[in-house]
Amino acid sequence: MAHINANYLNIKESYLFSEVANRANKYKAENPGADVIRLGIGDVTRPLCPAVIEALHSAVNDMSETETFKGYGPEQGYGFLKESLRAYYAEKGVELDIDEIFVSDGAKSDLGNILDIFSKDNVVLVPDPVYPVYVDTNIMDGRKIVYLSANESNNFLPLPDENIKADLIYICSPNNPTGACYNREQLTQWVAYARKNNSVILYDAAYECFVSDDSLPRSIYEIEGAKECAIEFCSFSKTAGFTGTRCGYTVVPFALERDGHKLNKFWLRRQTTKFNGVSYIVQKAAAAVFTEEGKKQIYENINYYKENAKTITDTLDRLGIWYCGGKHSPYIWFRCPDNMGSWEFFDALLSKANVVGTPGEGFGENGKGYFRLTSFSTHENTKEAMKRFEKAFGNNG
Amino acid sequence: MAHINANYLNIKESYLFSEVANRANKYKAENPGADVIRLGIGDVTRPLCPAVIEALHSAVNDMSETETFKGYGPEQGYGFLKESLRAYYAEKGVELDIDEIFVSDGAKSDLGNILDIFSKDNVVLVPDPVYPVYVDTNIMDGRKIVYLSANESNNFLPLPDENIKADLIYICSPNNPTGACYNREQLTQWVAYARKNNSVILYDAAYECFVSDDSLPRSIYEIEGAKECAIEFCSFSKTAGFTGTRCGYTVVPFALERDGHKLNKFWLRRQTTKFNGVSYIVQKAAAAVFTEEGKKQIYENINYYKENAKTITDTLDRLGIWYCGGKHSPYIWFRCPDNMGSWEFFDALLSKANVVGTPGEGFGENGKGYFRLTSFSTHENTKEAMKRFEKAFGNNG
Predict the structure, then answer these.
(1) A387 CB contacts (<8 Å, ≥6 apart)?
(2) What does the pLDDT read at residue B397?
(3) Which domains does chain B have, with CATH numbers?
């Protein structure tokens, strides 16, 4: 008699995005003339840049001729892309060996799959509010989860608490959903805590390309000692608009050992056994991101989104609304005006301004009373949305 | 203190393909003039067909314009591809709902990841010889594995043994590495056994497109009752030469329940939590395989490989060497001449005929004394290799 993994029964169904869609659709049905603007989505909207498109066409041509056709590639990624990634890290002052880098189909896959190499008995620390995948993937394995409070008093950047012991620690910086970004001193505290407790930090750097200030770290490995206690996950999704093209990468340093074993070797074993590498075509496209042209072009897109973020934060500044994010992140996280609840404000924003956002409580208890807007829309729509926002809530700011 | 998943320490390192490469390279170094032909690889060599190339270029163009750009897609695959797959199954007489089909980056990923939804206490049945991934992925989870003997007396197609109880049953047909293919009556016995014991069959159909005889099943669901006891894995890798392009699919029927829960819902939850879908570009390419042109073109490639298989089996027939596979599979599995051991024959074939193949014992105990050749080389090289084979071992046939 085959049995299911009963841990799955403990996962809470998330109704966040379906409920957002339901309420937005209901409003549209009742107000067919309304011009509803969506600032809730966490997905890019700008097309792939020309350097990437050119690389894609060229790689497709490679696949059309016997001489240049590519079959199975290395599970951990082609050397040409790993070399580009090594150079990218070197620009941040981080020296990596090419075999410390693993190319994958995205950070979400790796963030889930990395748990394969850890004991089910590990205790997991996640901040609240949080990207729901960190929680659900651990519930699937039956791990104990402890939460760390992110809130206004710590600017949604909680620091280690010596009274809370944890084996695996999730850090996402710049953060989803709050947009908050740790500085060097704060990350140094986390690295010290992890080293002292022999914990492993699972560092989600998916939004590192939005960091606007050179003094802020874009990789955990910019912190001394991090190679002995951290795995870093990153992605081309937000960097280069690859959400529908699918490519990410994970760094497992050789120096990271637990129970006397190199985690790099464990992850290599996991990936060679349960994964067969990323499409050659997609890897060629990812490598094009790091050419001179590619870099210039992707930063045009990133700056486009950053201008939208500024449109949003300028409005919140004018209204005197507390927020974080926006400067080093495509996300802006703010306190709902008039002490409204997240969903209450969702309805108010929709009915008064015809703008759809994301209620903060969908990301955890500490998100109650907060709200997330994203900068992934067009300039025109973002400006119009914030004009309406200001008109609707200006008196209450 | 973070701890590793100690089950990983129980995985046996496989030296099969590295040892094959080492011996071949050593021979090349010692005999620089030798024209060594490789018939060991399990990878396609023919380029992607024109219909697929055209779809790839078109999809790349979609990604270059705001209006047609695609961000995150459904984790379980785009409707356009799932509709094509549903129609493909309908041609085999299998009716599926579109939401019973999940698109992925390949059968290897899904075969590994599917285990997430099953209890670690399930006992697993695998045939010997076997695709090593079935074994290693279960060792990683600490499951008990029992083996079923595939051998000459059962034509490497073992049938259920009521004395062996198992919860999860791996069946690969046409088989890797033996090329043997179950008929309808044999699969009916497996379905009956699984239903009686409430087991779940994990059916690897990656080579179904090589089945040449309409009376042989190309899907487990051609067998009555299979939807209540089987999950099917398939791939575009061998069907359309996607080994380096990466696309596969898995079918989890709604009728399949264990412990009172639909496994379809569990797999959907797994994939939406730990996966973010396959590249839009690749899914468009996969859908092109099912156009009239695409089907015609991929079968030209499949038939090209089948001609190579015939070149190999004709030689073995002439030499009176026992074999299976080749007719409905790109693999030919044969008894080593002169009662040689697998590695002994590897060395003899390399030195006498300058041909590289794969020793059967790399796939399990029952592979000892057997050998695998593949049909993925060119006509020219396959003919030359078998001419040399016949010359070297003809007197011993």
Answers:
(1) none
(2) 42
(3) 12-41+294-396 (3.90.1150.10), 50-290 (3.40.640.10)
